[in-house]
Amino acid sequence: MVSIPELNTSIHTLYHSHSRWLLGFLYRRLGSRCDAADLVQDTFLRILNRPRQFDGERGERSYLATIARGLCVDHWRRQKLEQAWLQQLASQPEALQPSPEQRAIIVETLHEVDAMLLRLPGKVRQAFLLAQIDGLAYRDIAAHLGVGERMVKKYLAQAFLHCAILEAELDGVLVE
Prior knowledge:
By secondary structure, this protein is mainly α. It contains seven helices and no strands.
């Protein structure tokens, strides 16, 4: 087991050895120095939460790049979701436009819902989206997924449970 001072020294060394390289790596992918710098910090925060030993510089960079790639995908997904919402919002009359504070809350909530959907098993997510977005009946969802209506009911119950948990978390009722 690594002691806290050793861990701090090792992460400090890792940061100073690779942060500039990682910034360039992310900048080439994102095209924005600010976004790249944010993801460099997020990468090292992830390492703080999941420390590990490496087999030399090549292993360190490989691990950092793996984490950074995942963060880039999350970043692009969040941007795409936010853009879709902003496009929808632009089509609304000005009287219905939310305040900047409300916009920030809505965007964060959209990201939370998106993350929750990604955590659902594939068929559960599909059933939920087919019911909520496409408005399909249980029998149509069952046919689409190749399962029985009873399984669709189970899938939707599971999805709604996750929605209720997310709602409670967003309302501050639940604490992790």
